[in-house]
Amino acid sequence: MRMSLSLAASLHIPFRQASNRCATLWPGLMLCLCLAGLSYVISAWPALNRVVPLSALTVGILVGVVLRLCVVLPARVEPGIRWTLHYLLRAGIVLLGFRVVVQDLLSVGVGGLVLVTTAVVSTIVLAIALGRLLKLPDTLSVLVGCGTGICGASAVVAVDGVIRARGQDVACAIAMVTVFGTIAMFAYPAIAPHIGLSEAAYSAWAGSSIHEV
User: Fold this and answer.
1) Each residue of 1-25: b (16+ CB within 10 Å) or e?
2) In the chain, N or C: fewer CB atoms in 10 Å?
3) Counted domains in the chain
4) What confidence category does residue 212 fall into, taking pLDDT thresholds of 50, 70 and 90?
5) How many Å apart are CA 188 and CA 184, to the nearest integer?
6) Which residue did the predictor score with more confidence, 31 or 54?
7) Pair 92, 159 in one domain
8) Are residues 213 and 112 in the same domain?
9) Minimal CA–CA distance to 138: which of 147, 148, 129, 150?
10) Do 109 and 93 share a structural domain?
11) DSSP helix, strand, coil percent of the chain (3-state; round to 5)
12) 68 with 104, same domain?
C-alpha cells in the first residue's frame, strides 16, 4: 500500500506540472492558431487574389503588425506566443524542407546550383558588409542576409535558433524580408519587359533572388 501511494504521488507531480504548463501556454497558442487561420482565410479570399495575391505568411505578418499596433495584448498570451515561435514555427520549417527532394536539386543542373550558391553567399556577405557600414548589429545583418538570400522568414527563424539574436532583431528581419520580398514579386514582372532579358535569363534572375513566394 505504501509503495502504491508513493508511486501515485510521484506520478501526480509531473502530471500537475504538465497541466500547469499547458494552462500557461494555452491562451497564446489559441491566439496564434486563430491568427494563422485568419491569415489563410484572407489569403485565399478570391476578391483579394484578383487584386493583390498575397501568401498566408505575408498576410499573417500584416495582421500581427496591426494587432500589435492597435491592441494591447494581455501578458498571459506571451508564454504561448514564445513557445509557438521556438517550437511550432521551427517544426514547420523542418516540414517545409521535406518538400525539396534530391530530384528537385538535380533537375536544376550544375549551373543552377552554382548560381544559387553564389547568390546566397554573396547576399549574406553583402548584408553583413552593409550592416557594419550602417553600424547595425551583426546579428540583425546576418538574419536579413540569410532571409533575403535563402527563403525569407523561415530562414530568419532557423538562423536565429543558432545565433540567438534579440527578439526585436528577429522581428525586424522577418518584416524586412517579407515586405521587400513581396514588393519584388510585383516589381520584377513590371521591370522585365524593359531590361531586355530572355525568358531563361529572367527566370534565373527571379528564381535566385525572390525569396518570398
Assistant:
1) eeeeeeeeeeeeeeeeeeeeeeeeb
2) N
3) 2
4) low
5) 6
6) 31
7) no
8) yes
9) 129
10) no
11) 85, 0, 15
12) no
